[in-house]
Write a structure and sequence with these properties.
10 helices; single chain; binds NADP nicotinamide-adenine-dinucleotide phosphate; alpha/beta; six-stranded parallel β-sheet
């Protein structure tokens, strides 16, 4: 297949590019930044140069890490919802034979909001909050590509675990400094996935013609934050005595603390199971053992 990837310079994009090339696909990797050795869009980030594609994987987006000031929220929204709207409109200007047959657009498990201990799958309704609003707007923008006969898949991704990106390198440093510990009550659920599974499940969704709509990119074993902390401490052979109280996290990180650290989702990857995807790392202990 000919696969285009936006955000190819990022954590998931780099792994996806390597795996797709390894499987014999031809990859066009896009980056907004010059000097990356990647294909640069023309006048604006959404203006991908027209080239025949079988699939387009759209991973671009402002990092969610950091203080969610009004300006940061604006960048998070615009780089996802507005960018995806513009990208889809741009694809409409391509010759029909060049347009990708399938558009895979990133989204997040944050779509489900703070769903507590209730298990959620792809049929569950959206949740409340800024992140849920962003994910819902992002997915709606992607689905507009269906008007051009494009199959659309949205990836409701949990925390992606890898050595070279995402949250794990930072967590390792915290635990190494003795600052590892649960966040708030530790009872919030965490959806996670090993980066290798994230990429292989994404590629399987592309090649499985029956898959359209949301796909939970999450391992089958969701854990609470307390369990995650204990398993990471065990894998690193480090203590996890530290406890970050909710009020301190809120004071430091404001909205980001509530939506990303103190709340969570108990996500079931129903579509992955329906299409018979075999997780290489179905349990957290196994995933961490392979990464640390
Ligand atoms: N990693 C996770 O745990 C996780 C979990 C859930 C959802 N996701 C979603 O999956 C997608 C990929 O994740 P990732 O971890 O690979 O992200 P990442 O490492 O932060 O990479 C995202 C890429 O997006 C581009 N980008 C950054 N800021 C941008 C902006 N303001 N406007 C437009 N493009 C911008 C950059 O590419 P260029 O500068 O080269 O164009 C960057 O390499 C993201 O949309 C993320 O929200 C990730």
């Amino acid at each position: 297949m000919r696969i285009g990837i936006t955000g190819a310079s990022g954590f998931i994009g780099r792994h996806l590019t390597a795996s797709a090339i390894g499987q014999g696909h031809a990859v066009t990797a896009y980056s907004r930044r010059p000097g990356m050795g990647l294909t640069q869009p023309k006048e604006a980030p959404h203006a991908l140069p027209e080239t025949p594609l079988d699939a387009l994987v759209h991973l671009s987006g402002e990092s969610l890490m950091g203080l969610w000031t009004p300006e940061k929220r604006d960048r998070i929204w615009k780089s996802r919802v507005d960018f995806t709207e513009a990208l889809v409109a741009h694809l409409g200007t391509w010759q029909p034979e060049n347009r990708p047959k399938v558009l895979v657009c990133a989204s997040g498990a944050g779509f489900y909001g703070n769903s507590g201990a209730i298990a959620v799958d792809e049929r569950s309704p959206r949740g409340e909050g800024f992140l849920a609003d962003v994910c819902a707007g992002w997915e709606t923008a992607a689905h507009r590509a269906e008007a051009f006969g494009i199959r659309v898949i949205t990836l409701r991704t949990g925390m992606v675990l890898g050595r070279d990106g995402g949250a794990l390198p930072l967590l390792r440093r915290l635990f190494a400094s003795g600052l590892g510990g649960r966040l708030g009550s530790g009872q919030q659920w965490m959806a996670w996935i090993h980066v290798e599974d994230a990429v292989q499940l994404l590629l399987k969704a592309i090649t499985t013609a029956s898959v359209r709509g949301p796909v939970n990119l999450c391992a089958p074993e969701a854990v609470t934050n307390a369990e995650f902390t204990q398993k990471l401490a065990a894998a690193l052979h480090r203590p996890a005595f530290f406890h970050a109280p909710a009020f301190a996290l809120r004071l430091l990180l404001r909205g980001m603390a509530d939506e990303m650290l103190l709340s969570g989702q108990r996500v079931t990857p129903r579509v992955a199971m329906e299409i018979g995807y075999g997780f290489a790392h179905p349990t957290l202990s196994d995933a961490l053992a392979s990464l640390v």
